[in-house]
Amino acid sequence: MRSNQTKGLSIALLFLSPVIGLFSAVKHLEWKNKKLVIILFIVMYGSLLQYGEGADAAAYMRLLNNYDHMSFSEFFLRLEHIITFSPLEGSPNDVYAHVLAFFSASILGMHGLFFPIVAFIYGYFYVKAMSKILVWERGRKLALPILLIVILFIIHRSVTSFQTVRTWTGMWVLFNGVYGYHQTGKRKYLFLMCCAPLIHFAYFVIGIPAFFALFVKKIPAKAIIGLYLISFFTNFDPGNIVDASQDNSLAETKVSAYYRQDESGEGIDPIAVRMEAGNSVWYAKYGKTDAVYYGGHAFALLLILSGYFKKKMTQLEVGLFATGLLTATLANFGAFSYAFYSRTMANAVIYILAVVTIMALRGAFSFSDTRNPRLMRFLNWVCILIFVPKMVFFVSELLVMSSIFILGLPFIGWFDSTMNVSIREMIGEFL
Length: 431
Hints:
Keywords: Membrane, Transmembrane, Transmembrane helix. By secondary structure, the chain is mainly α. 67% of the residues lie in helices and 1% in strands. A two-stranded antiparallel sheet has the order 1-2. Strand 1 and strand 2 form a beta hairpin. Helix 1 packs antiparallel against helix 2, helix 1 runs parallel beside helix 3 and helix 9 packs antiparallel against helix 18. About 5% of the residues have low confidence.
């Protein structure tokens, strides 16, 4: 009874101060009760989301204008073209965005509900993942390195990430499917894994390693490790990929956005060029991508060097880590395109961090059963410190994207959007 009262109080607090309501739930409730409160917090965060004109969120809000008063016949016509990889002009490339845009703009007629719905779906799968991984004895105090590893898993793709709508929602859907299948072997999780490409077209490719890893019992650890190490020194032939993409207009458009060749045959990565032209501060330049990917590789190599894979892992950990290594291998092979490498490696890191977190929470990262425990502990700290720019970047991004009303009185932001400014903007008024 007391647990239900605390849950009710936490939910009520969300409408006065979402941050305090979240803190109350995290501090006092078990996972089975806190999940609802955390999801509701993410929905509120989505309803007050702050973003610039160049953000993905702004592009989706403009897309909704194409769906105003759309008929069901046009909806299904556009859906057919999306499924056959030939989307019509003004349509997204993916089933997920198409359905949500139609539901919010045409059926409900309320553009403002688009991101709360996106946040709910993202939050559901994100929180499900957290509840699976972040499990330890109640009242146990976590040592600093373990606490930092837990934080890294939480912030890798957290509350600031759902504004992209498709990419990281697809990642968490795939992750939950992979985890569920390796844990239980139930076929329903294979279906969940197959849903990821419906959310984002890229998961037709990014999801391939996850399906290969389902047969991890039949694949020797040395073969997986060897392929992973080889991938650092070789790439797919981009010319062949460009040629193959020309058979489908959508594939050609996608590939040309990530990689193309000039008249002399030299490869051009448009996104990498654009990033190099930017003048980002150090924590944005390294914390958004590079530190995460270097850190992911560092943790992967640590688990390999320590001799944990596969000998000292549970079957679940073996499945998750194999998925991470194979996905990182795919990312390395496709490193000629920064956008492909970045998305694929971000997926790899979540599996690697999940295994690191699970093992740290069960005490495996004392490294007492390794040949050189002191060296392994030192390398563990090196891996954590590589992520420092990511931690700083996360805090910075959180301040930019979070409304001041996430701290209190959220209903003011709902009824008067002109007052809805970010925490960073409010701080700027006093500096």
